[in-house]
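User: Here's a structure from my thesis project, written as structure tokens. My advisor, Dr. K., wants to see whether a designed sequence matches the one we expressed. Can you design one independently, without my sequence as a hint?
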């Protein structure tokens, strides 16, 4: 899988730069304004492209060269970051400038993420998709630990524009890596011809005709509504319940990040059960137990809450990794951009709504009460999931790829797809040449 790991390595550098800048900008806004409203607005700005534009962007990604989409997205992010660095250098930065740059960076990410996910299924053998998903989860967990520490150290020795320049450099590395790899481009099916809006609606119909995926998306939306706000309320849990400070909060956050890394590495080695949805449901049960334990931990036992946070983080890759693998394996290649963005948009839309409701509810029942509710919801879904036939048949009741993606006119891609499902990576079958 050399071509895939060339791309993956470049994207790992880019992810580090992006995580570094995210931390630095949030810290800058915190130091300059001290306003919770401004920080919340910055978070909301980063949600907007994915929630409101994701499905349409997915339709565009399915039409365009995914390799070029990733290069253009990395380039757009780099140019926006370079512009912000110039503003910092000239000492003319305003808060609204940062909002604009955050929106542009999020827009680039909304193009980049489905392009990378849908490319993975064309470059990685089917039996290794869960392992690669676990590796990706571990990488993101590692970045959540390393980037804040590196950002804090760098802010002490170099100005903001220097940190922004690092992100530009990592984006350039990612673009250069893409120059050396060819990513197969699936041929569009007849119903996807026409306007991008029509193609987007076809993506909706595709998912609607997949009973297991529709039910799973509903479950993901409900989980995001409860789980994401719970972890967002962790600072209040530490200060109000455990009577801790910044150090104790750091321990909690680090335990989460270390758990994500550990869970991702375990999944990358293990690969999960043959029936991938069982791996997800098992991970969901473990996550629910971890969150529930946090909610019931007495104030004098912070160490138990830290261990429970590790368990919750460990379970996240076990939950998410197999789901990504199912989508990459079962969704028709020419529709993966739309399906990935549709799932992301619907599940992501629940997070801001959950945050808006969690605050008042937590004030009423206590922060721990929200953790208890979130843990119970997770456990209920893990227990009832095996009783739902569409969920357990998720990998069998999808629309057949061959019915949606005729490849008669693309013999190379057809051969690559056939070999991929035999466990042979497509780069062994497709001659790499510039697109």
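Assistant: Designed independently from the structure alone:
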């Amino acid at each position: 899988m050399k071509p895939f790991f060339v791309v993956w390595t470049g994207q790992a550098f880019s992810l580090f730069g992006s995580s570094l800048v995210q931390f630095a900008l949030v810290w800058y806004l915190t130091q300059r304004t001290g306003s919770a409203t401004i920080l919340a607005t910055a978070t909301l700005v980063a949600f907007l492209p994915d929630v409101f534009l994701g499905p349409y962007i997915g339709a565009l990604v399915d039409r365009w060269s995914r390799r070029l989409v990733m290069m253009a997205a990395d380039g757009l992010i780099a140019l926006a970051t370079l512009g912000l660095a110039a503003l910092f250098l000239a000492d003319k930065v305003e808060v609204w400038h940062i909002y604009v740059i955050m929106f542009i960076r999020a827009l680039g990410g909304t193009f980049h993420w489905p392009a990378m996910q849908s490319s993975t299924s064309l470059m990685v053998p089917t039996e290794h998709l869960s392992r690669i998903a676990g590796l990706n989860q571990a990488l993101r967990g590692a970045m959540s630990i390393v980037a804040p520490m590196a950002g804090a150290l760098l802010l002490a020795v170099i100005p903001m524009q220097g940190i922004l320049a690092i992100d530009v450099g990592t984006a350039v590395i990612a673009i250069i890596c893409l120059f050396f790899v060819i990513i197969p481009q699936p041929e569009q099916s007849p119903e996807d011809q026409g306007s991008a809006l029509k193609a987007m609606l076809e993506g909706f119909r595709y998912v609607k005709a997949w009973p297991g995926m529709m039910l799973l998306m509903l479950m993901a939306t409900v989980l995001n509504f409860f789980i994401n706000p719970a972890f967002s309320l962790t600072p209040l849990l530490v200060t109000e319940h455990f009577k801790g400070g910044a150090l104790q909060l750091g321990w909690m956050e680090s335990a989460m990040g270390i758990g994500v890394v550990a869970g991702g590495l375990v999944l990358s080695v293990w690969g999960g059960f043959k029936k991938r949805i069982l791996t997800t449901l098992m991970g969901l049960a473990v996550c629910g137990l971890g969150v529930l334990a946090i909610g019931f931990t007495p104030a004098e036992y912070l160490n138990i809450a830290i261990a429970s946070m590790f368990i919750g983080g460990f379970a996240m890759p076990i939950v998410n990794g197999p789901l990504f693998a199912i989508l990459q394996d079962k969704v028709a290649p020419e529709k993966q951009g739309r399906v990935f963005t549709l799932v992301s948009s619907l599940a992501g839309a629940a997070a801001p709504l959950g945050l808006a409701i969690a605050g008042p509810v937590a004030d009423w029942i206590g922060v721990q009460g929200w953790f208890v509710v979130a843990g119970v919801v997770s456990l209920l879904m893990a227990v009832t999931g095996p009783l739902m036939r569409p969920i357990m048949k998720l990998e069998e009741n999808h629309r057949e790829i061959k019915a949606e993606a005729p490849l008669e006119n693309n013999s190379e891609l057809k051969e690559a797809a056939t070999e991929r499902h035999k466990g042979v990576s497509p780069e062994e079958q497709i001659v790499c040449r510039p697109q």
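When you compare it with your expressed construct, this may help: Residues 400-435 have pLDDT under 50 and may be disordered.
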